[in-house]
Amino acid sequence: MEMACTLNCSGKNSSLLRIPASWGKYAWSIGRDDPRRAIHALKAGTALTLVSLLYILEPFFKGIGKNAMWAVMTVVVVLEFTAGATICKGLNRGLGTVLAGSLAFLIELVAVRSGRVFRACFVGAAVFVIGFAATYLRFFPKIKKNYDYGVVIFLLTFNLITVSSFRQEDVVPLARDRLSTIAIGCVICLFMSLLVLPNWSGEDLHNSTVRKFEGLAASIQACVDEYFREQNKDDDDLDRQEARASIHTGYRAVLDSKSSDESLAHYASWEPRHSMHCYSYPWQKYVKLGSVLRHFAYTVAALHGCLESEIQTPPSVRSLFRDPCTRVAREVAKVLQELAVSIRSHRRCAPDVLSDHLHEALQDLNSAIKSQPRLFLGSKHARSANNRMLMELNSAKNTMTSRTTLHSFKTDTTSLLEQKNTRTDQPAERNERPTLRPTLSKIAITSLEFSQALPFAAFASLLVEMVVRLELVIEEVKNLEGAANFREFNGNDHLVIDLTSKEKTRNRNGDPLHPVSPAAE
């Protein structure tokens, strides 16, 4: 019994030890994915330590007093991950505090000259009117988009100063101390965000757009390769699940990027223009490009749905169209990779980015489909044979139905006589039934190839639709390049990415393509 208790206790202790270890491993993975997160956490801790000195050190506490806590609150709510978000919140908080303090001071000047009863009524009415107006103002689209946080701070500060001034004789020192502590907190936040390893919203938006192109290219290539991969019993299910999960990750990141794109574009408009990625950039063009990419990602998601469908294309059909479909997917992925490279390097894409190779791949796919008309249309002989068999089957059914309906109109004597001959009639029926089954089987055989080709027809149509949407993506990229003043394209910038061999080749002044080593890059 004691041994069992000891084993249970040791098992519980080991499980308790594994929980912190798993948490630590997960926290390490979060920082490893983006080291800027750990740096931002260090910056926030340093800012809170600096601002807390106003409350801890005696000289600062004597000058500011308990209002130093407003500086701590300001750092907590204003300091954000990117510089644009910090500037936006800092200016909103400062502007809201100044306006609220000024308005509260004017109301106090009017109310202090009246009696106590009138002063209470006047303060209550002012709180109601200002609260109603500020809350209703938050529903305006432009206010809600740019100054919603400032309106909240204005409403909070105004009510705190106005209501507290009713029990306090002089409200000017209170407003001055709170404004000064909030200003100190905002200055510390701006210093940490702009001067200590800054993170720019514009840079994040730019890099996320590049990652969208790369993720879609990887998803398309992996999806087509997985669709035409031969099914073997020796295949590892875990590897297949990981491959399909990578497909889902690539396009899902694009579909879920709407809110992040809009917020990054909004905060990037607040950032100073001296940043490398913040000079005369039309940030809303990035948002529009993200919208076009989301429509493109819906097609990729539908392509992935064909892969996950329970109705699978037979291997004989897949082998006929593996090469043309793979070529189309590879060329589309190359175009997306070329667009990603051009956006990353702030240059215009190649004029022939939609190369002739893609059109040739589409023509090959079209020729392959036309070479197998029986799969998609069926031959005329098969269709006429099916129609003739169906007519014979329907006529046989009508004859049997007429026989059964005539029985109901016969007299009782006739029905009794037929009951005696039931055993003699049954063998005839048994002889008739087998003659109908071969007819049905012939119809099933002639239509089997057509039904098996339907899943691939959907898959091929999605590939063609993807090429059509790719042209819209290229057009939107060119609009972004023109609005952002990207540098012009030249022959030395032409980069062709071979997705099969993972090698990069450059075209220099019309010379033949040759591999480029990583060291040369």
From TrEMBL:
<feature type="compositionally biased region" description="Basic and acidic residues">
    <location>
        <begin position="420"/>
        <end position="435"/>
    </location>
</feature>
<dbReference type="GO" id="GO:0016020">
    <property type="term" value="C:membrane"/>
</dbReference>
<dbReference type="GO" id="GO:0015743">
    <property type="term" value="P:malate transport"/>
</dbReference>
<feature type="transmembrane region" description="Helical">
    <location>
        <begin position="94"/>
        <end position="111"/>
    </location>
</feature>
<feature type="compositionally biased region" description="Basic and acidic residues">
    <location>
        <begin position="500"/>
        <end position="511"/>
    </location>
</feature>
<dbReference type="GO" id="GO:0034220">
    <property type="term" value="P:monoatomic ion transmembrane transport"/>
</dbReference>
<dbReference type="Pfam" id="PF11744">
    <property type="entry name" value="ALMT"/>
</dbReference>
<keyword id="KW-0813">Transport</keyword>
<keyword id="KW-0812">Transmembrane</keyword>
<protein>
    <recommendedName>
        <fullName>Aluminum-activated malate transporter</fullName>
    </recommendedName>
</protein>
<feature type="region of interest" description="Disordered">
    <location>
        <begin position="401"/>
        <end position="437"/>
    </location>
</feature>
<feature type="region of interest" description="Disordered">
    <location>
        <begin position="500"/>
        <end position="521"/>
    </location>
</feature>
<feature type="transmembrane region" description="Helical">
    <location>
        <begin position="117"/>
        <end position="137"/>
    </location>
</feature>
<dbReference type="InterPro" id="IPR020966">
    <property type="entry name" value="ALMT"/>
</dbReference>
<keyword id="KW-1133">Transmembrane helix</keyword>
<keyword id="KW-0472">Membrane</keyword>
<keyword id="KW-0407">Ion channel</keyword>
<comment type="similarity">
    <text>Belongs to the aromatic acid exporter (TC 2.A.85) family.</text>
</comment>
<keyword id="KW-0406">Ion transport</keyword>
<feature type="compositionally biased region" description="Polar residues">
    <location>
        <begin position="401"/>
        <end position="419"/>
    </location>
</feature>
<feature type="transmembrane region" description="Helical">
    <location>
        <begin position="179"/>
        <end position="197"/>
    </location>
</feature>
<feature type="transmembrane region" description="Helical">
    <location>
        <begin position="38"/>
        <end position="57"/>
    </location>
</feature>
<feature type="transmembrane region" description="Helical">
    <location>
        <begin position="149"/>
        <end position="167"/>
    </location>
</feature>
